[in-house]
Amino acid sequence: MPVVVGLNWRRATAPAAVASMLTGFGACLASELLLQGWLASRGLDSVGIGVAAGLAVFGAVSRRTRPVPEENLRAFFGKDDSGKELRT
User: Fold this and answer.
1) Structure confidence at residue 31 (pLDDT)
2) Helix, strand, coil % (nearest 5) of the chain?
3) What is the rounded end-to-end Cα distance, in angstroms, of the chain?
4) Distance, C-alpha 8 to centroid of its chain
5) Could you give the CA distance from residue 12 to residue 62 in angstroms, rounded to a whole number?
6) Where are the domains of the chain?
């Protein structure tokens, strides 16, 4: 999930990706160990819990950390936030 969001959202940050992966893994593992029967009885999977937790943390940490400089985004995005072409 951090790769897909990171390549499509200009505000994504590396610390957010790391926090998201760790949180998603922890949430998936915890729900698998602690809630396995409860989730299965409702047709849910622990992976969904991990993805949801990771997504929430990714957004929160990205908003609270320093944005990636525009010159670093040039390789992935052709325009800045205002719609202007980035100069090389």
Assistant:
1) 92
2) 60, 0, 35
3) 29
4) 11
5) 5
6) 2-73
Is residue 67 a contact partner of residue 16, using CB atoms and an 8 Å limit? no
Any long-range contacts for 78-81 (C-beta under 8 Å, 24+ apart)?
A: 81/10
Structure tokens at 36: 């396995």
The mean predicted confidence, pLDDT, of the chain is 86
Closest CA to 45 of 23, 33, 28: 28
Residues 5 and 48: their CA atoms lie apart, in Å, by 16
pLDDT in tens, 52-82: 999 999 999 999 999 888 887 777 777 655 6
Q: What is the mean pLDDT of residues 31-48?
A: 88
Cα separation, 17 vs 2, whole angstroms? 5
Q: How far apart are CA 82 and CA 24, in angstroms?
A: 33
Q: What was the pLDDT predicted at 65?
A: 94
Residue with tokens 């998603």: 24
pTM for the complete prediction? Answer: 0.77
